[in-house]
Design a protein that fits this description.
With 415 residues, this protein is mainly alpha-helical. The chain has three domains: 5-38 and 219-322, no CATH class; 40-204, no CATH class; 328-409, no CATH class. It has 16 helices and three strands. It has helices at residues 5-38, 40-47, 54-72, 74-81, 90-109, 112-133, 152-161, 163-170, 185-196, 215-246, 250-281, 288-322, 327-348, 356-363, 365-382, 387-409; strands at 142-143, 146-150, 206-211. A three-stranded antiparallel beta sheet has the order 1-2-3. The chain is elongated, with a radius of gyration of 32 Å.
Length: 415
């Protein structure tokens, strides 16, 4: 009577492989999201480069300049100061004032001081958000029912750059208040408003993150999400182990696990690219470049971690293939063994390992030298390498050329 146990083992192993591939994609994405959103270092590392992107600073500059211009109302002050016959000059002078303010705003936004303010604001906002999600209802500052990112200190710094202009427009010396990074944004806006003697909205210098009414739902969601990530980190590896234990051919199952994981991660990357395009397409034309930089910066970490997983899975798949009983794999392993003897003899200068492969290399040494240089040139031209990466390529090429040189100089012993 035939034994059906291997068949059931194959079926269960196949189910484990399928679930592993699906859950690997979910686990990697969820772990990245958890680290990026709930871990302070992950959050700061993600948002820090965004503030130095020229497209983002340009968009922020426009928003802050328009807000300051609306608050100061220099056109009205200029019109009041001009004689009636020169009233037509109010508009072009006001345009010049707008340009001056924008220039000073750009100076601040591209300075190290703003980078520090940006990191500090995000660090404080993240700490408060995490505390609120863990049950501290008083941790977050809200304005008009919105949880906000407080950039009022940055707005105050910009006003310091145009303090003389503000004094002239207001008609008295403006003394700006000291604004602390952890101060309630609406209170800070009121201080600046009093100093300028101009009305400022309580939302000045703030970026709305999400409605405060969603916080209760977010707490439940984060708790469930946190537990789910921990469960995924346990279950996903166990599925891979289970598939290998149940398998009747572990090398083949390892290959299936690797290929399944690769396909799942490719789907994640393609879906993320599609989502990026959708988010960017919905931006206003003037802010499209800024949104592009923000979206790309936000998901850069996901592309990095999936790339490392893809490389690891690809290496495992290649090893599983090379270790197989396929004719080409057997021939390749044999050739690699002979090539190892050739390489050793080339560097040692001995004749041990002299065979047909060594003779072929010596006969085509010039072609191999050109091919090595061509490959190095292609790597340098097609891959964006840091300076140390360029040095590594040059060093590898030098070792390769030296090996060919030693191999070619080794005399052939006549038998």
């Amino acid at each position: 009577m035939p034994d059906h146990k291997p068949r059931w083992r194959r079926i269960l192993a196949g189910i484990c492989v399928f679930l592993f591939a699906v859950l690997l994609a979910v686990t990697v994405t969820a772990s990245w999201a958890r680290y990026t959103v709930l871990n302070e270092k992950g959050w700061v590392d993600t948002v820090k480069p965004i503030a130095s992107d020229p497209a983002v600073t340009a968009a922020l500059s426009r928003e802050i300049t328009d807000e300051l211009f609306a608050a100061l109302k220099p056109r009205q002050a200029i019109a009041d100061a001009l004689p009636r016959k020169a009233m037509f000059l109010a508009a072009p002078i006001a345009t010049g004032v707008h340009g001056f303010i924008e220039e000073r705003v750009n100076t601040i936004l591209n300075s190290p001081k703003f980078q520090q303010l940006w990191v500090s604001a995000n660090r404080i906002a993240h700490k408060r958000l995490v505390r609120a999600l863990k049950g501290d209802n008083k941790a977050l500052s809200t304005t008009n029912g919105q949880v906000v990112l407080n950039l009022v200190p940055a707005l105050n710094s910009v006003l310091g750059e145009v303090q003389g202009l503000a004094s002239n427009v207001v008609g008295k010396k403006v003394t700006l208040p000291t604004i602390k990074a952890d101060e309630v944004p609406a209170t800070a806006c009121k201080k600046i408003s009093d100093a300028l003697n101009r009305p400022l909205p309580p939302t000045c210098g703030q970026i709305a993150l999400f409605p405060a009414s969603n916080l209760t739902q977010a707490k439940r969601g984060v708790r469930a999400f946190d537990r789910g990530v921990v469960a995924l980190l346990i279950i996903t590896p166990l599925l891979a182990v289970g598939a290998l234990l149940l398998s009747v051919s572990r090398r083949r199952t390892l290959l299936q696990l690797s290929i399944g994981g690769i396909l799942a991660l490719v789907v994640v990357r393609r879906s993320t690219i599609w989502l990026q395009s959708e988010l960017i397409a919905g931006a206003r034309p003037e802010n499209k470049a800024a949104r592009t930089a923000i979206v790309h910066g936000a998901v850069h970490g996901l592309f990095t971690i999936t790339a490392w997983f893809l490389i690891g899975l690809l290496v495992i798949a290649v090893i599983a293939l090379l270790a197989g009983p396929y004719r080409w794999a057997v021939a390749l392993r044999s050739w690699v063994g002979r090539a190892g003897h050739v390489v050793a003899s080339g560097f040692s200068g001995s004749d041990e390992g002299e065979d047909s492969a060594l003779s072929w290399i010596r006969a085509h040494v010039d072609l191999l030298r050109i091919a090595g240089a061509a490959v190095a040139a292609l790597v340098v031209l097609l891959v964006s390498l840091p300076f140390w990466g360029f040095l590594i390529v040059i060093a590898v090429l030098a070792l390769y050329e030296f090996w060919l040189y030693r191999l070619n100089r080794t005399p052939t012993v006549a038998v």
